[in-house]
């Protein structure tokens, strides 16, 4: 009976308002009926107006978190979130190679949803050259895919070509999240390229809301949770897409400006599966 329950790990920072980062990942692990653990790498002081201060944890403390979790638990899948500098990325890569924490979902947090770059050059190169090659699944947004590949993505054909470029870095499976284009508010199209070369599109309506904090965290965390439960990659991605879209669609009244998505609403997806 020891360690039979599916356990999932997030390697991420703490977002004090609970809308993103480690907190969004743990919300997601819970609603997907898995047990969530965390390696905390940073903490931010933020609210719905923005981030006001941030601190990175000492690398030796980060190493110790990996070590003690590996000593006791059976983590079946993991995901990364925001890793802000090259030394932090390298520490995570080293620990992940040392310990068995299952398949890795990499949410390559490079830009905001609006395209503003978050990582300096050294951190970006470390993510591209050292972390992405470890990924079972990578989940870049539209802007991140452009930065990683050096491509301009103006249409779905270019979106698919960018996924092939990312796969060539060593990533097994890629989902490129479509542009939430406010000039075309009808649909968002996400492209999935699997390790065997097969592909498919996932589409959902564009929801005109400012409550989208934690969207990328939720998608990647849900993929990791489904992998931990034994789902194949394609099924894990499809479920994660539907869960995330549901959480965006049903807005929750939290915060004055840029609020969180609604994980409570996404619990209804469990009911659909149980029928």
Automatic annotation (TrEMBL):
<comment type="pathway">
    <text>Cofactor biosynthesis; thiamine diphosphate biosynthesis; 4-amino-2-methyl-5-diphosphomethylpyrimidine from 5-amino-1-(5-phospho-D-ribosyl)imidazole: step 3/3.</text>
</comment>
<keyword id="KW-0547">Nucleotide-binding</keyword>
<dbReference type="GO" id="GO:0005524">
    <property type="term" value="F:ATP binding"/>
</dbReference>
<dbReference type="InterPro" id="IPR013749">
    <property type="entry name" value="PM/HMP-P_kinase-1"/>
</dbReference>
<comment type="pathway">
    <text>Cofactor biosynthesis; thiamine diphosphate biosynthesis; 4-amino-2-methyl-5-diphosphomethylpyrimidine from 5-amino-1-(5-phospho-D-ribosyl)imidazole: step 2/3.</text>
</comment>
<dbReference type="GO" id="GO:0008902">
    <property type="term" value="F:hydroxymethylpyrimidine kinase activity"/>
</dbReference>
<comment type="similarity">
    <text>Belongs to the ThiD family.</text>
</comment>
<keyword id="KW-0784">Thiamine biosynthesis</keyword>
<keyword id="KW-0808">Transferase</keyword>
<keyword id="KW-0418">Kinase</keyword>
<dbReference type="GO" id="GO:0008972">
    <property type="term" value="F:phosphomethylpyrimidine kinase activity"/>
</dbReference>
<feature type="domain" description="Pyridoxamine kinase/Phosphomethylpyrimidine kinase">
    <location>
        <begin position="15"/>
        <end position="262"/>
    </location>
</feature>
<dbReference type="GO" id="GO:0009228">
    <property type="term" value="P:thiamine biosynthetic process"/>
</dbReference>
<dbReference type="Pfam" id="PF08543">
    <property type="entry name" value="Phos_pyr_kin"/>
</dbReference>
<dbReference type="InterPro" id="IPR029056">
    <property type="entry name" value="Ribokinase-like"/>
</dbReference>
<dbReference type="InterPro" id="IPR004399">
    <property type="entry name" value="HMP/HMP-P_kinase_dom"/>
</dbReference>
<keyword id="KW-0067">ATP-binding</keyword>
<protein>
    <recommendedName>
        <fullName>Hydroxymethylpyrimidine/phosphomethylpyrimidine kinase</fullName>
        <ecNumber>2.7.1.49</ecNumber>
        <ecNumber>2.7.4.7</ecNumber>
    </recommendedName>
</protein>
<dbReference type="GO" id="GO:0005829">
    <property type="term" value="C:cytosol"/>
</dbReference>
